[in-house]
C-alpha cells in the first residue's frame, strides 16, 4: 500500500517542467586517496609540489595527512564530465609522484607506525597553520590511523526550476528558500533511515590490514588470511563502523534534522561546549598547542556524519553561519567507500543510482525523526556493516523486524518509479537499467562490492594488500597512458602556478599573530 501511495504521489508531481528540470541537477565529487610507495607502504614524502599549493588549489589538495590526497571537481550538470575531470586531476597528480601510486581502497595500506602519518602542511599563513593545528587536534583526540581512511564525498543540488515546479505541485505557500531547506532536511531524514542500503550495495571495506589496529583487540568476528589481513565474511563497510571514521564523544550531541534552526543549534552547542575528554590537551592559548580548543568539536567540520546540509560560505563565515544566513544550498553525502572497481573511486552507475536514491528520499513523505529513531537507523547501519551479506540479517523498520531482501524490495519498487522520471528527462533508459541491475544485488549479495572483494580474497588466499597493489599499478598505468579528457596539461600547470601566487597573497594579508587570529575566529564563531 505504501508504494502504491508513493507511485500515486509521483504521478501527480511528474509535471513536464519538473521532469525536464532533473537534467539541471548539479554535482561535485571529492575523492580521497592515500599516496603509497611501490612496496604498498604509505608514502612519507611531502605533498607533490608540482601539482600546486594545497591551501589554495581548488581541485588538488590534502586531507588529514601529507599522504592523503583530495581531488575536488568543479560543480557540473554532467556526470560524465565530472568523472572526466576527476581522471584528469588524478593523471596530472600521478605525473608528479615519481614511482608512487594511489591506494584504491578506503581502509589504509600497511602502516608500521602512526608516526609515519605526517600531518598535512598548509604553509605559514594563519589559516594554513590553523588547518594543520586542527589536524593535530584530530590526531591527539582520535589517533592518526583513523584519519588515514579514505572516502568519496558526493555533493548534489537540485535546480531552482525543480523547486519551483515541486512547490507549485504541492501548493506550498512558504518562502522559496524556507521550502527548499525543509525539503532537503526531509531528504536527510529519509536518507538516514535507509542509509544501510548504501553500505550494503557500495560498501567496499570488508577487510583491513592488521596494522590498522596497532595491536589493539577488536570484538568483531574477524577471520584472518595471508600475512595480516583481517576480514568479516559478511561485512560491507568497516570504514563506517566503530573501527572507522566515527567519534563516540559526539553521540551525546544529539544533533537533529527536523528543522534548520534545530540542526544549527545542535552544532553550535558542540563548538561551544567544553569536553572533559579533551580538557587535558593544550589548546591554541598554550605555548605548544596540540589542538585548536577544548570543546567537543574544535570546529564544525569535525562533526562526523554520513550526510550534511551545506551552503557555500562567504569569507570568514562558518558552515552554520552560512546555513543561518541563506538556508540549505546543497547536500553532501559522506557515506561512500572508495570504489576499487573504478579508476576514479566512483562509477557512473553509482552516480545514476545516487541521483535516483536522493530524489526518492526527497520526494517521498519524510516524517520528523526522533533521537531514538536516529539511534535505530544507526543500529541498522552497524548490522549491515558487520553482517550485511548474511541473508538472515534482520533490521528494525518501525515496530517490525525485516530482512534486507524484504526491505530492499520495497525500496527498489520506489526507486524504479523515480528512475522513470530520470529516463524521461534524459531521453534514455540508463537510470532504469541501473536500478534494475542493482535490484538484483539485494538477493545476490555476492554481486555487491564487498561480496566481490571477499570472493576474490578467498580465491587467492593472499592478503588484501596484494589485491589493492595490483589494482593501484593497473590504474596508474591506465592514467598515465590516457589522453587528457577535459583539462589540458597547460590548464593544470596554470592552476598550479596560480595556487602558489594565491598562497603568497594569503600570507601577505595576515595582520594578526596566530594566537590573536584564532582568538578573533572563535569569538565570531
TrEMBL record:
MF terms in GO: ATP binding; glutamate-cysteine ligase activity; metal ion binding
Pathway: Sulfur metabolism; glutathione biosynthesis; glutathione from L-cysteine and L-glutamate: step 1/2
Record EC number: 6.3.2.2
UniProt cross-references to Pfam families, sorted A to Z: Glu_cys_ligase
Stretches assigned to the Glutamate--cysteine ligase domain: 11-384
Reaction equation(s) it catalyzes: L-cysteine + L-glutamate + ATP = gamma-L-glutamyl-L-cysteine + ADP + phosphate + H(+)
BP GO annotations: glutathione biosynthetic process
Xref: Gene3D superfamilies: 3.30.590.20
Residues spanning the signal sequence: none
HAMAP family, sorted: Glu_cys_ligase
Assigned protein family: Belongs to the glutamate--cysteine ligase type 1 family. Type 1 subfamily.
Name of the featured protein: Glutamate--cysteine ligase
Record organism: Pseudoalteromonas luteoviolacea S4060-1
Biological classification of the source: Bacteria, Pseudomonadati, Pseudomonadota, Gammaproteobacteria, Alteromonadales
This protein's encoding gene: gshA
Amino acid at each position: 500500500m505504501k508504494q502504491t501511495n508513493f507511485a500515486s504521489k509521483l504521478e501527480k508531481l511528474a509535471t513536464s517542467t519538473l521532469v525536464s528540470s532533473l537534467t539541471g541537477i548539479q554535482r561535485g565529487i571529492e575523492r580521497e586517496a592515500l599516496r603509497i610507495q611501490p612496496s604498498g607502504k604509505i608514502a612519507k614524502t611531502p605533498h607533490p609540489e608540482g601539482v600546486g599549493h594545497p591551501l589554495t588549489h581548488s581541485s588538488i589538495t590534502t586531507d588529514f595527512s601529507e599522504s592523503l590526497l583530495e581531488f575536488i571537481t568543479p560543480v557540473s550538470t554532467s556526470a560524465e564530465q565530472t568523472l572526466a575531470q576527476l581522471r584528469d586531476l588524478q593523471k596530472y597528480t600521478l605525473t608528479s609522484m615519481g614511482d608512487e601510486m594511489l591506494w584504491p581502497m578506503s581502509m589504509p595500506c600497511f602502516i608500521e607506525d602512526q608516526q609515519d602519518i605526517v600531518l598535512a602542511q598548509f604553509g605559514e599563513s594563519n589559516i594554513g597553520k590553523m588547518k594543520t593545528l586542527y589536524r593535530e587536534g584530530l590526531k591527539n583526540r582520535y589517533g592518526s590511523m583513523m584519519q588515514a581512511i579514505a572516502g568519496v564525498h558526493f555533493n548534489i543540488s537540485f535546480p531552482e526550476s525543480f523547486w519551483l515546479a515541486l512547490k507549485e505541485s504541492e501548493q506550498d505557500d512558504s518562502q522559496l528558500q524556507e521550502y527548499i531547506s525543509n525539503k532537503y532536511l526531509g531528504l536527510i531524514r529519509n536518507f538516514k533511515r535507509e542509509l544501510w542500503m548504501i553500505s550494503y550495495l557500495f560498501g567496499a571495506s570488508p577487510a583491513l590490514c592488521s596494522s590498522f589496529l596497532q595491536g589493539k583487540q577488536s570484538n568483531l568476528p574477524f577471520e584472518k588470511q595471508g600475512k595480516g589481513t583481517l576480514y568479516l565474511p559478511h561485512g560491507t563497510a568497516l570504514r563506517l563502523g566503530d573501527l572507522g571514521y566515527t567519534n563516540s564523544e559526539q553521540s551525546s550531541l544529539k544533533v537533529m534534522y527536523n528543522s534548520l534552526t534545530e540542526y544549527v543549534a545542535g552544532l553550535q552547542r558542540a563548538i561551544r561546549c567544553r569536553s572533559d575528554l579533551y580538557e587535558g590537551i593544550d589548546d591554541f592559548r598554550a605555548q605548544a598547542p596540540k589542538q585548536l580548543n577544548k570543546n567537543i568539536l574544535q570546529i564544525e567540520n569535525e562533526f562526523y556524519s554520513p550526510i550534511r546540509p551545506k551552503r557555500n560560505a562567504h569569507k570568514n563565515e562558518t558552515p552554520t553561519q552560512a546555513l543561518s544566513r541563506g538556508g540549505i544550498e546543497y547536500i553532501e553525502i559522506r557515506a561512500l567507500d572508495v570504489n576499487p572497481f573504478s579508476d576514479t573511486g566512483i562509477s557512473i552507475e553509482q552516480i545514476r543510482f545516487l541521483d535516483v536514491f536522493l530524489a526518492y528520499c526527497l520526494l517521498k513523505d519524510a516524517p520528523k525523526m526522533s533521537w531514538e529513531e536516529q539511534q535505530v537507523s544507526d543500529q541498522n547501519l552497524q548490522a549491515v556493516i558487520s553482517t550485511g551479506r548474511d541473508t538472515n540479517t534482520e533490521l528494525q523498520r518501525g515496530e517490525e523486524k525485516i530482512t534486507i531482501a524484504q526491505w530492499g524490495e520495497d525500496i527498489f519498487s520506489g526507486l524504479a518509479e523515480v528512475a522513470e522520471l530520470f529516463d524521461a528527462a534524459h531521453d534514455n533508459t540508463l537510470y532504469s537499467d541501473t536500478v534494475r541491475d542493482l535490484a538484483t544485488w539485494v538477493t545476490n549479495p555476492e554481486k555487491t562490492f564487498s561480496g566481490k572483494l571477499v570472493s576474490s580474497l578467498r580465491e587467492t588466499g593472499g592478503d588484501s594488500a596484494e589485491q589493492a597493489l595490483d589494482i593501484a599499478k593497473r590504474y596508474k598505468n591506465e592514467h598515465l597512458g590516457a589522453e587528457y579528457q577535459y583539462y589540458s596539461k597547460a590548464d593544470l600547470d596554470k592552476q598550479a602556478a596560480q595556487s602558489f601566487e594565491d598562497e603568497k597573497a594569503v600570507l601577505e594579508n595576515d595582520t594578526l599573530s596566530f594566537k590573536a587570529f584564532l582568538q578573533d575566529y572563535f569569538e565570531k564563531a
